[in-house]
Amino acid sequence: MDTEEGKVSKPKSLPLLEQLSIQTKEMTTRLRRLVDGLDNQGEGSAEPDLTSPSDTTVDQETIEKQLELLGEHRDVIEKLLTQPRVLGVVISTLSPTETSGASAIVSCNGRLLHLQVPKEIEVHSGEIVELSSATEQIVGKVSLLPRGRLGNVLQVNDATICMVQDGDFSRMVFRGNFSDGKEALEVGDRVVLDDSGSIILSNLGRNDQRFRTTEFRPVKWEDIAGLEGPKREIAQLIFLPIKHRERFARYGRKVGKGAVLSGPPGCGKTLIARGIATWLAAEFGQSDVEDDGYIYLSATELLNMYVGNTEEAIRSLFRRGRAHEKRTGRPSLIVIDEAEAVLAVRGSGISSDIEKTNVPTFLAEMDGLKDSGAVVLLLTNRLDIMDPAVLRDGRCDRKITISRPDRSAAQQIFRLNFAGMPTELSAEEMAVFATEDFFSDKYPLYDVGRISTKDSTVFSLRDVVNGAMVAIGVVDRAARIALDREINSNQNSQVTREDVVTAISAVHQETLTLNLENELRDFVHDFADDINEVKKRVQIRK
């Protein structure tokens, strides 16, 4: 810090530094007074009064303390005046030559710099180095957690470069620490790129947590009740070609690429998907379903406000499926629920026409699937608005309708869920009783007046039945009623027929509060022109 006539210069841009400079100046003046006081001090002088600024008599110890404090302030000022350093990433290193020592190519602020490496510093590709802001020379190394953009390795070209998907673009990047076979780098790996997107800083592997079930609940194929028709079609499309590969190969047949499961909510679409994943794991000798063996997501999870991100998410699904087949030898199952959200008819205006790019991306990935690379299941309640190109044969080979359970199917679901719990009658007898009560006329929802007849057509609870309503709405509720009774009485109890009736009545009352416009429209489809009025039954308040 320059001084002129004993005055300390005060940097205006640093208030803290200015304050320290003023304090240092005052201490220097004070110290000079003290030193002058020692020089002029004579015999018989009084003890120094340090509380008085005018007193100049002092001992050596006081001077040393003042000097020490002055040194501390000077150190702080020097640190504050130190020029900041910039960080760069080593792209590659060059061996020493006859005329110069070791050097390195460094990426810094979007520029590539060829710099000499000090003898006392050893650097490697992918490391972060400190550069002097004044000379831009390497002055040290730093260890930082990798930060930057995420990409996916598309192709490993050679020992130094590879192709990476960076957002919606593909680019060639340097492998950094993953060069020359130092560490494995494979297609499908997620990597961290530096801010310039030119070098790989870290390899995160394939552990992409998106679209993964946190706790997969296996479902045995034989435990799926009331869906015999859809199960038979799935077996023909997936199971039989896998179990009898050679026979199917003789006929030029192979495992289907995918299927669309359509139908009302709660009727077993997701249950079938879990059953397929469980069967595939067991068929290939797996005790449970691996992470990439069952990829389940709602289509809305794919949607992203930024252009290209949804398409990249779709591509990543298929990359994971292909990598899983390559690693384990068995196909993975990709399940997209609410598929109409991203695969609607192009130009329909749904989802702001994002389907104009989503659908072609999905079609390209489906067409690129090899035999058994992955099986794609699309689940939807709106088959009518999905793009025809997605549904055509060769992509989604089967269009399977999951209908509402009829009496026979409902009875199977009741029997399966009553089995294993204490009941008043056998599981079969309880199932028969529950089915007859549920499908009776005791639970009306709407009265539909007809022009051609005097009597109204009744729209009842049985017309909106689904598997979840039977298994959870009725059986689970009846079991809880029995449990409450057992806990309150402190005596063993069991599910009775009265508990079942109470549970069905509760489901009926809940259903009366729902908007059933779509279900009612389907119900009157065949006689829509014969309707003169529709009246909703009044909910009973308890």
How are the elements arranged and paired?
Layout lengths: L2 E2 L2 E2 L6 H26 L19 H22 L3 E10 L8 E6 L2 E6 L11 E5 L5 E5 L6 E8 L4 E6 L2 E6 L15 E4 L6 E6 L22 H16 L1 H6 L7 E5 L6 H15 L10 E5 L10 H20 L3 E6 L17 H13 L6 E7 L7 H4 L6 E4 L5 H12 L8 H12 L5 E7 L6 E4 L6 H23 L7 H16 L4 H7 L7 E6 L6
Parallel strand pairs: 13-16, 13-17, 14-15, 15-16
Antiparallel strand pairs: 1-2, 3-4, 3-6, 4-5, 6-7, 8-9, 8-11, 9-10, 11-12, 18-19, 18-20
Q: In the CATH scheme, what's the topology name of the largest domain? A: Rossmann fold
**Please, how many helices?**
13
Strand proportion, as a percent range, falls in 15-25%
Arithmetic mean pLDDT:
80
Strand runs, count: 20
Per CATH, the superfamily of the largest domain is P-loop containing nucleotide triphosphate hydrolases
Derived structural class: alpha+beta
Q: How is the main sheet built?
A: 5 strands, antiparallel
Write down the Rg: 38 Å
Indicate the percent of residues in helices: 25-40%
Shape assignment: elongated
Name of the CATH class of the largest domain: Alpha Beta
| Terminus-to-terminus distance | 87 Å
